[in-house]
Design brief:
The structure is a single chain. The protein is an alpha/beta fold and about 220 residues long. The chain has a single domain (about 5-220), classed as Rossmann fold, CATH 3.40.50.720. Helix content is about 45%, strand content about 20%. The chain has 6 helices and 7 strands, in the order βαβαβαβαβαβαβ. It has helices at about 20-30, 40-55, 70-80, 105-130, 155-175, 195-210; strands at about 5-15, 35-40, 60, 85-90, 135-140, 180-185, 220. A 7-stranded parallel beta sheet has the order 3-2-1-4-5-6-7, with helices on both faces. α1 crosses α6.
Length: about 220
């Protein structure tokens, strides 16, 4: 049987200094402890130290979602010691590529980052949420699934797959009290703009706090 969840523990997968940092700070202001997972150890350490300087309890683990097997192994090891009440999947491979040029190996590793990692995270961490009849699983979506970009082919494919995966999770988990949803961002995240990361982070907090009667599989952030 899964261990009881900690409703004040946030796990961020694909953590970085932009949106992930703002989400961590927003939840940290509400008394959450944070676990950050990313593939670059030095950047992860720097982010963790910055958050700790703000008084937020932070733990870290390194993992690369492009390695689906290794990533799953790290998640399973984490699940032996943490049971987060909130999981945010913010990993993505953002690169210029063309659907006519990308080779199969590259396409598969991109799909692992953009989609498979989120599914693995849900499989590992939502059983405890279902047992507790509460929990939130959020993923960062993107407008590319609606208007695929020829110069960002793998990302467009990934965001379409991620949206479908989260919609499936939403349908499977909602009756067990677990809210799975994507936050679809329309545009490029940038400081001091309507798409500033701290503004988007407020939406993640809002979706987490929604009453069950207001749950949807997708929330759009257009920066207006």
């Amino acid at each position: 049987m899964p261990a009881p969840i900690n409703p004040k523990h946030l796990l961020i997968l694909g953590a970085g200094p932009g949106l992930s940092a703002s989400i961590a700070r927003r939840f940290g202001r509400e008394g959450f402890s944070i676990t950050l997972v990313a593939r670059r150890e030095q950047a992860l350490t720097e982010l963790a130290e910055a958050l700790r300087a703000d008084g937020i309890p932070v733990d870290t683990a390194t993992a690369d979602a492009a390695d689906a097997t290794g990533f799953r192994s790290v998640l399973e090891t984490l699940a032996e010691r943490i049971t987060p009440g909130v999981v945010v999947y913010n990993a993505a491979r953002i690169a210029r590529d063309s659907v006519l040029d990308i080779d199969a190996e590259y396409m598969l590793s991109s799909y692992a980052v953009n989609v498979v990692g989120a599914i693995s995270a849900a499989q590992v961490f939502t059983p405890a949420m279902r047992e507790a009849k509460t929990g939130t699983f959020l993923a960062t979506g993107g407008y590319a699934y609606m208007d695929p970009e020829p110069v960002h082919a793998s990302l467009s494919l990934g965001k379409a797959g991620l949206r479908a995966a989260i919609a499936l999770l939403h349908k499977e988990l909602k009756d067990d009290g677990v809210h799975a949803a994507s936050v679809t961002i329309h545009g490029t995240i940038a400081p001091d703009t309507p798409l500033a990361p701290e503004r988007i982070a407020e939406t993640y907090w809002h979706v987490h706090r929604q009453p069950a009667g207001d749950w949807t599989a997708e929330t759009h952030f257009e920066g207006q």
